[in-house]
Design a protein that fits this description.
By secondary structure, the chain is of the alpha/beta class. The chain has helices spanning 5-17, 22-32, 36-41, 43-47, 50-54, 103-119, 140-154, 173-187, 207-227, 243-254, 277-286, 291-294, 329-337, 353-361, 369-372, 375-388, 395-420, 427-446; strands at 59-68, 74-85, 91-97, 125-131, 163-166, 235-239, 258-264, 267-270, 302-304, 317-320, 342-344, 365-367. It folds into three domains: 5-54; 59-190, Rossmann fold (3-Layer(aba) Sandwich), CATH 3.40.50.10860; 208-363, NAD(P)-binding Rossmann-like Domain (Rossmann fold). The structure holds NADPH dihydro-nicotinamide-adenine-dinucleotide phosphate (NDP).
């Protein structure tokens, strides 16, 4: 927790106003916990009410999405887009379709996105959007009709220099295709106002791999800086077998690690011979959940129907890549007790603040999501650059740039943690301060 009276008062006020938004309060507390020293040494932050301003979204657009299902019934979902901060560039952030979507979750994700985007050094502000629509079990036509009706409202509020959405949980290349297709039809322009598009629709090679691969590049930097080591022969576990998790597992294996467990909502598969990631990727082409089907191809592997069991598998490195708050204190204790010494977040805020504190107290190297999973949005920024200049870069060119960006993000976090935390491996403080300073300076330059 923070000590500065200014931060304590601002947070108390926020907690009163948004007492029903736990995820949002959690992410703000996480950021403010790193800012004590900065606030103490720089009176301009308080004088210009920077914290009060940075924790309120510039705009929230809430809307209804009505659509017709395959049986002819009218369905209604609730959608919103949080345009949180545009100090350093147009709003940028993903779109989530999941029954859990609400204002608290959208605000937490958009807030986190501000500082993540800042860390990439690309000119992108922070936003997030989505709907409480569940694509699982829906036909392609139903998904298309939902996406089209979602855009019928949202198109007014987005644009290549205004707000550029992307995918997230439940929104992959298919959904982005339908969303972008409808936007393009209404606006009559091919401006690239969406990233993580299919390649043929103007997407970037390497975007699908970017978050998972970028996470592994970030972990490589951690291993090299703090342990003079690399991925070779490390036992790795990955939660989530979706866009981020499967690519993180693939890259970790390529870098010499042994990925021994992976999960999705159906459960965990533990395969001491090493997870067959090609099989997982093939299964996910035709199935919504894949982990419960793995054992029929590899009978030696052990299946557990509870996804939380993944944190009990002894490992060196844990990569949580599924969703928010998937590692509570109990799971953090199990990880440490079983020998885990490095955790890096592929998902957004998968670790609760208590669990993250426990890792710190037990000398577990910790790569916070806003730095470690920034590769996805970084390549989205590269997709915007390619669209704006009518260029198509090769996979190798994009991957090289991604690698360089992840190294630069690590270096910035490392430098800031050495200066402000007195502990060079405190990458949480490093990421928070480094991400915050750029946004704060831009807000100062632009006046109230
Ligand atoms: P996907 O929908 O592609 O995949 C999510 C995966 O996590 C699925 O395998 C899902 O299982 C699984 N999952 C969901 N909830 C749980 C749970 N409680 N326990 C175990 N597994 C679970 O999403 P993404 O991979 O795109 O996103 C994952 C996370 O990464 C999110 O936090 C997202 O915000 C973050 N992120 C994503 C980026 C991107 O580029 N896509 C960029 C940066 C962060 P099932 O399919 O069975 O439901």
């Amino acid at each position: 927790m923070f000590k500065s009276t200014y931060l304590v008062n601002v947070y108390a006020d926020l907690s009163k106003r948004y007492h029903d938004q736990p995820e949002y309060l959690q992410v703000v507390e996480e950021l403010l916990s790193s800012l004590d020293l900065l606030v103490e040494n720089d009176p301009k932050i308080q004088e210009n009410a920077i914290i009060e301003r940075i924790i309120e979204p510039e705009r929230i657009i809430k809307f209804r999405v009505s659509w017709v299902d395959d049986s002819g019934r009218v369905q209604v979902n609730r959608a919103l887009r949080v345009q949180f901060n545009s100090a350093i560039g147009p709003y940028k952030g993903g779109t989530r379709f999941h029954p859990s979507v609400n204002e608290s979750i959208m605000k937490f994700l958009a807030f986190e996105q501000i500082f993540k985007n800042s860390l990439t050094c690309l000119p992108m502000g922070g936003a997030k959007g989505g709907a409480d629509f569940d694509p699982y079990g829906k036909s392609d036509n139903e998904i298309m009709r939902f996406c089209q009706n979602y855009i019928l409202e949202l198109y007014r509020h987005i644009g290549p220099r205004m707000d550029v959405p992307a995918g997230d949980l439940g929104v992959g290349a298919k959904e982005v295709g339908y969303l972008y297709g409808m936007y393009k039809r209404i606006e009559n322009e091919f401006s690239g106002t969406f990233t993580s598009k299919g390649i043929e629709s103007g997407g970037s090679l390497g975007r699908a791999e970017a978050t998972g691969y970028g996470l592994c590049y970030f972990v490589e930097e951690m291993l090299s800086a703090f342990k003079k080591d690399d991925f070779k022969n490390k036992r790795v576990i990955v939660s989530g077998a979706g866009k981020v998790g499967s690519m993180a597992a693939e890259k970790a294996i390529e870098l010499g690690a042994k990925v021994i467990a992976i999960s999705d909502i159906s459960g965990v598969i533990h395969d001491e011979k090493g997870i067959d990631i090609k099989l997982i990727k093939n299964l996910s082409k035709t199935n919504t959940v894949v982990i419960d089907k793995y054992q029929s191809y590899h009978p030696d592997a052990v299946f557990s129907p509870d996804p939380v069991d993944i944190w009990k598998v002894p490992c060196d490195i844990a990569l949580p890549c599924a969703t928010q708050n998937e590692i509570y204190l109990d799971s953090a204790k199990a990880l440490v007790a079983n020998g885990c010494w490095l955790v890096a977040e592929g998902a957004n805020m998968p670790t609760t603040n208590e669990a993250a504190k426990y890792f710190r107290e037990h000398d577990v190297l910790f790569g916070p999501g806003k730095a470690a999973n920034a590769g996805g949005v970084a390549v989205s920024g590269l997709e915007m650059a390619q669209n704006a200049t009518f260029q198509c870069w090769s996979f190798e060119e994009v991957d090289q740039k991604l690698h360089a960006i992840m190294k630069q993000i690590f270096d910035r976090c490392h430098e800031a943690s050495s200066t402000y935390a007195g502990r060079p491996d405190d990458l949480v403080t490093g990421a928070n301060i480094s991400g915050f300073i750029k946004v704060y300076q831009a807000m100062l330059q632009q006046g109230v």
